[in-house]
């Protein structure tokens, strides 16, 4: 059969005489398939949609039917969608109520704040309905709060207006009425009622109500209410050993439920020696975990949420002004630390403009003052402190936006909490303590320290303060025992504090005026003039850390005695006693190529050099490492005289390594004879002839 192959650009065909053709191989043309977003699995789509803000999510609903059905049927998307920068209004009220019904905490907090201050809501509802909605949305927001630390009371706490129209007072009275009629209130509302009552006039009847509301909240399992009851019971409790032991046990149970205040109080009791029924090793182990599990701050550039228009200098100027406000209002340093934490966390999540930066700062100070202080900043006063830059309504909205964005998680442990514990572990003078607080407050101005844990910052501040005030040993062993931090763990943070807080000049404003609000704050006599203590030279810190590094190297490379080395060599050669074998010894197989390669070097090695090498090996690596550390510290050299003297000798001796033990090949052969291991007759004969 005659066949021919006809080639073309489209296909290959086979032709016969009968002119019948059939395709043999078609050319494959690459067709690129386009994968659309809706073609992804639903699980992946939900993960992508979870990062969208509410306006973007609403726009996605209108794309096609699949997205509409997927988004509207997934309650978790509406529950976790971000409402940053959005405020309730008559135009979007239906959207806010829908998201709130799905369990969104941000929507509930903003709706409660809007109805409380009547900001952005319509005039259709009566005043009674407003009070009901305020109580409802705050109660639902507390139920959805994952931190178990109530925050509703800071919105409703006094001072109240005296004209009888204050919705905060009416909301509180409505809760009291519901409680009298045995209506069910959640634990957070009961705690808020007790907390609000503490700011009113102290009457004996009202004090009993406070304890009653705390007890009702504690019965529902609220840990912070249990802690307040525990504190109240300590005032009337005897101070004998039995009652002290029982109180420590109760405090430990409350702290195990996640109450931060009770945890700090428990570890404070531990630092005083009140271990309860635990051993010292257990207590120190728990405290080390507490210190080493502390949170990190927010550092640049994550601090400004990727906005390059913001700089660290802008943040420095803002925080310096907040310190001025705190000094003017006589706020504590704890309020300043909490306010800075709220500012950083809010900026890392929300996108704002430059003109809103001061509004965020004064609002965070207002919120944290309500948490910590008796004398608070009112909303009108906050607007006045900005020289009228912002209106009353803007502060109201920003207050709701900050609390909603942080999901009510306002109370966090700060560097001051850890610092107070460390001061109790190894007491120092009041001057040294305030110098440490001064350094900790200076560190707030620099976003760089967001890379460190707050417990490390606290320990480094205390270490630097002890050096500046010449307070004995900079870092004692008991500090390491309770905190788990050694000098090596604090060196980088401590040197950064020295450089950024004392060596670098402060930032200047547009008038070329240095911003020194923190320094002026701690120049007062009630803070022991801490800012007037001169900073030490950085070389002193380098000396402290270098000496510690030298001691640590010496301990790690402690020389091994000859008897100890002999035992290690025997354990290297002999069989492990854990093996279940009838034989009492096991031959050590040395590769013959290695023996043949090194034999000539051993034959030509003079005897006196071998003796010198044995002495160098027995001396151990610890001496060399300690001398090297000493030379690096004193002269900056990279090699010691010991290494230079023996560098040529080490090339002529072949050694075997087993862990940290070094054994010469000649010693191995001698050991072979001792333990009854057979050597090659041929190799022994050849060595005898060469000798």
From TrEMBL:
Domain of life: Eukaryota
Annotated protein name in UniProt: Cyclin-F
Keywords associated with the record: Cell cycle, Cell division, Cyclin, Cytoplasm, Cytoskeleton, Mitosis
Source organism: Holothuria leucospilota (Black long sea cucumber)
GO BP term, pick one: cell division
Gene Ontology CC, one term: centriole
Pfam families: Cyclin_C, Cyclin_N, F-box-like
Intracellular or extracellular location(s): Cytoplasm, Cytoskeleton, Microtubule organizing center, Centrosome, Centriole; Cytoplasm, Perinuclear region
